[in-house]
Design a protein that fits this description.
The complex is a heterotrimer of chains A (about 280), B (about 220) and C (about 270). Chain A has 11 helices and no strands. Chain A has helices at about 5-45, 50-55, 65-95, 100-115, 120-135, 140-165, 165-175, 180-210, 210-215, 235-245, 250-275. The model of chain A has no long low-confidence stretch (mean pLDDT about 90). Chain B has a single domain (about 1-210), classed as Phosphate transport system protein phou homolog 2, domain 2 (Methane Monooxygenase Hydroxylase, Chain G, domain 1), CATH 1.20.58.220. Chain B contains 6 helices and no strands. Chain B has helices at about 1-35, 40-70, 75-110, 120-140, 145-175, 180-210. In chain B, helix 3 (about 75-110) packs antiparallel against helix 6 (about 180-210). Chain B is elongated and about 65 Å long. The model of chain C is unreliable at about 1-15 (pLDDT under 50). In chain C, helix 9 (about 205-215) links the parallel strand 7 (about 190-195) and strand 8 (about 220-225). Chain C has one domain (about 5-270): P-loop containing nucleotide triphosphate hydrolases (Rossmann fold, 3-Layer(aba) Sandwich), CATH 3.40.50.300. Helices cover about 40% and strands about 25% of the residues of chain C. With about 270 residues, chain C is an alpha/beta fold. Chain C has helices at about 5-10, 10-20, 65-70, 100-110, 125-135, 140-155, 155-160, 175-185, 205-215, 230-235, 255-260, 265-270; strands at about 25-35, 40-50, 55-60, 80-90, 95, 110, 190-195, 220-225, 240-245, 245-250. The chains are: A mainly alpha (about 280), B mainly alpha (about 220), C alpha/beta (about 270). The interface of A and C includes residues 173, 174, 176 and 182 of A.
């Protein structure tokens, strides 16, 4: 076994150092995430109990919970998905199928710009257009605001995922006598499905954590929602309200609510991943 | 064009081999006729000794043809060329065999009294030799026209054969003492007539190679 | 009329000629010019393809044979900036006439591509795709029958009959290509266009495809583009040689490969260029 030459040794050493550095960075990134999760869990577990999860907020000293906030968040999320995801996917499909012309170029530019708009601006916009019209806050307005945030994200990822589908698949379907729309609907979109779902999931995760737009649209409430025309509570707004209050009890509840929110988002991620696993 | 350089080299090599075979057959025929007309037993012996070389060359040409077919999959004019050569080689080898038969007859004939002016066997031999030479030229030059001209001369040989046949038969009936010699000379004439037919085959193959026209059995 | 010697003449040649004489023209192309934007890819192509025979397109890379193949089922329409002049008549109808039904054309003229492209669906759904979108069957059992028929015609049925619901992507390369052929056959086209169908396959799989073509030509008109001249010689009845976007020669295959009419053809076939 010959001994290593000097260049061999220096190369191996350099390789070792780089490996160590990258591993270190990974640990830092993952570590931070773990620290956040465990800190939240630590602070939140204290106030967490079943009553907390189903009760409505009560004045200080009387306990109370985030039941209506959980339901409210779910309603808002559902609303925004119903409006935002189809519109986003449709836009993405349009951009990928007919994306050559100038009009499509303009659309793409606008979509890209929209992804960067601060969510509070969206909230103010919906306030001006919907809330002032209706003369009161509502779940509807909140859903619309969230949808407006979702649409550009879903559109862009949908377009990218569809572009990734090999052209040969498209040709194969066309050669069988399928009209263009059928090819898109029946072959391309199913082939891009998991990618599109990932995009939708990213959008959902993003809007689940939005607070600012909801302040001007859904506003908040102490009660379980009865219809979409009324203001509605949400986890994020509730956390905000509790966190800026001067009461320790409410601070504790804020931590617990944060823990619940994080758990919900995590669960959504896992569920979507499971549902869109590649079967073919 | 690596592959095609190989193909061209191999085709040239094949052409060389078959032309060498042709040359040997030509020489064998000339030598045999010389042995016959000059009553030269040594020349006759040489013909028999060189026959092995002719057989070896035929086997070599066969091998080269098969190799080119399987390794190069020739097409169009290359295919016709190799095909023609593969069929020409046995024909040339048989011409060599007939030359040998003539040479063997010389040994026996030299023990018999000479027949003055050998009827017209010398002439027949010259026609056959020149036909073979011209046929091989036409093949080398890929000249179908020249090949067709040679085919026409086969009629002359057949004419001569018929004439010699009748003359010899007449002589055999009139002079039974020399009947054996006359019979041997008749066989020599037959060999020459067969050589004429073989040369015709060579010309037909040349026409096929040059023009892709199949003229055998049709003229 | 004919003397005994003429009848004894090559039976093979006579039967091939006779076959050609009785065949109708399935596809007639007249003066076809094709442009990618400003660049002209095909020049004045005029060609007749008889029914139920195999015609091979040969020629060096970039000679236009695949472009020409794709004009026959208007697949070039999906490429932006292309322009077609001239006529392509299938069963005497110009497929480029204004108002011509492209979807109907593609049902009649099927295509198999160079790299097999099964959909990421089950084997059954792949073959059934064309049937479903064109609504060619009226019941589940009829659909299943048609799928089985197509897979049998493509010599794939016995290998997949027990796993029709499994993913098409789990098949080997040769099987995937036969699946694509079955998918094309399911809608009962009249013409099948094949763009180098075996170029990505090993010799065993290739010879299976070639055998298949041999069987298929009893019912379908087949046009096959191939780089491999020996394949063209093995598989086709007629061969067309293309060079630089022009059609140089069309001939019976055995004549093309033993004594072509054009010098350019001979040079290509003997490997003197390209």
């Amino acid at each position: 076994m010959r001994t290593l030459s000097r260049t061999d040794r220096t190369r191996r050493a350099a390789s070792g150092v780089m490996t160590m550095l990258t591993a270190l960075c990974t640990f830092v990134a993952v570590g931070i995430l773990l620290i956040i999760l465990s800190y939240i869990a630590m602070r939140g577990l204290g106030a967490l109990n079943l009553r907390f999860l189903v009760d409505t907020p009560r004045p200080v000293g009387e306990g109370g919970g985030i039941g209506n906030a959980i339901v409210g968040s779910a309603v808002l999320l559902l609303l925004s998905c119903v409006v935002g995801i189809p519109l986003g996917i449709a836009t993405g499909v349009y951009l990928s199928e007919y994306g050559g012309g100038m009009f499509a170029g303009v659309v793409r530019f606008l979509v890209d710009t929209l992804t960067g708009i601060p969510s509070i601006v969206t909230g103010v916009f919906v306030y001006a257009v919907v809330v002032l019209r209706m003369k009161h806050f509502s779940a509807m307005a909140g859903g619309i605001a969230l949808a407006l945030i979702m649409i550009p994200i879903v559109a862009r990822t949908t377009e990218e995922m569809i572009r990734l589908v090999p052209h040969s698949l498209r040709e194969g379907a066309l050669a069988l006598g399928a009209p263009q729309w059928r090819v898109t609907l029946g072959v391309i979109i199913p082939a891009a499905a998991s990618g599109i779902a990932t995009g939708a999931m990213l959008a959902i995760a993003r809007v689940s954590g939005e607070t600012a737009p909801l302040l001007f649209t859904a506003f908040g409430s102490r009660f379980f929602p009865r219809n979409l025309n009324e203001p509605i509570a949400s986890l994020t707004v509730q956390i905000y309200n509790y966190a800026i209050s001067p009461y320790d009890e409410w601070h504790a509840q804020a931590w617990a609510a944060t823990l619940v929110l994080m758990t919900l988002i995590l669960s959504i991620n896992i569920l979507v991943r499971f549902l869109t696993r590649q079967k073919f | 064009m690596e592959v095609h350089r190989h193909l061209d080299e191999e085709l040239d090599g094949l052409r060389d081999s078959v032309l060498r075979l042709g040359g040997e057959a030509e020489a064998a025929l000339k030598r045999a006729m010389h042995a016959l007309t000059e009553r030269d037993s040594n020349a006759a012996r040489e013909v028999l000794e060189h026959d092995d070389a002719i057989d070896e060359l035929e086997i070599e040409v066969d091998r080269q043809c098969v190799d080119i077919f399987v390794l190069r999959q020739p097409a169009a004019r290359d295919l016709r060329f190799v095909m023609s050569v593969a069929k020409m080689a046995p024909v040339l080898e048989r011409i060599g065999d007939h030359a040998c038969n003539i040479a063997r007859a010389v040994f026996d004939l030299n023990n018999e009294p000479e027949l003055k002016n050998h009827v017209r066997l010398r002439e027949m031999g010259e026609i056959a030799s020149s036909m073979l030479e011209q046929a091989l030229d036409a093949f080398t030059k890929n000249d179908a026209g020249a090949a067709r001209d040679v085919i026409k001369r086969d009629a002359e040989i057949n004419e001569l054969y018929n004439q010699i046949f009748h003359e010899l038969i007449e002589m055999m009936t009139k002079e039974p003492a020399t009947a054996t010699r006359d019979a041997r000379l008749l066989f020599v004439a037959k060999h020459l007539e067969r050589i004429g037919d073989y040369v015709t085959d060579i010309c037909e193959l040349t026409v096929y190679m040059a023009e892709a026209a199949v003229i055998k059995h049709r003229h | 009329m004919s003397t005994p010697t003429q009848i004894i003449a090559p039976k093979f040649e006579l039967s091939r000629r006779a076959a050609l004489a009785q065949r109708e023209t399935k596809i007639a192309v007249a003066g076809l010019n094709f442009y990618y934007g400003r660049a002209q890819a095909l020049h004045e192509i005029t060609l007749s393809i008889p029914e139920r025979m195999v015609m091979a397109f040969i020629g060096p890379s970039g000679c236009g044979k695949t472009t020409f193949l794709r004009t026959l089922n208007r697949m070039n329409d999906v490429i932006p900036g292309t322009r077609v002049e001239g006529k392509v008549l299938i069963d005497n109808q110009d497929v480029y006439a204004p108002g011509a039904d492209v979807v109907e054309l593609r049902r009649k003229v099927g295509m198999v591509f160079q790299k097999s492209n099964p959909f990421p669906k089950s084997i059954f759904d792949n073959v059934a795709y064309g049937l479903r979108i064109n609504r060619l069957t009226s019941s589940k059992s009829e659909l299943a029958d048609r799928v089985e028929e197509a897979l049998t015609d493509a010599a794939l049925w016995s290998e997949v009959k027990d796993r029709l619901k499994s993913s098409a992507l789990g098949l080997s390369g040769g099987q995937q290509q036969r699946l694509c052929i079955a998918r094309a056959l399911a809608i009962r086209p009249e013409v099948i266009l094949m763009d180098e169908p075996a170029s990505a396959l090993d010799p065993m799989a290739t010879s299976k495809i070639e055998e298949l073509i041999f069987d298929l030509k009893r019912q379908y008109t087949i046009v096959i583009v191939t780089h491999n001249m020996q394949q063209a010689a093995r598989v086709s009845d007629l061969t067309a040689f293309f060079l630089l976007g022009k059609l140089i020669e069309v001939n019976a295959t055995e004549k093309m490969f033993t004594a072509p009419d054009e010098k350019l053809t001979e040079d290509y076939i003997t490997g003197r260029f390209g």
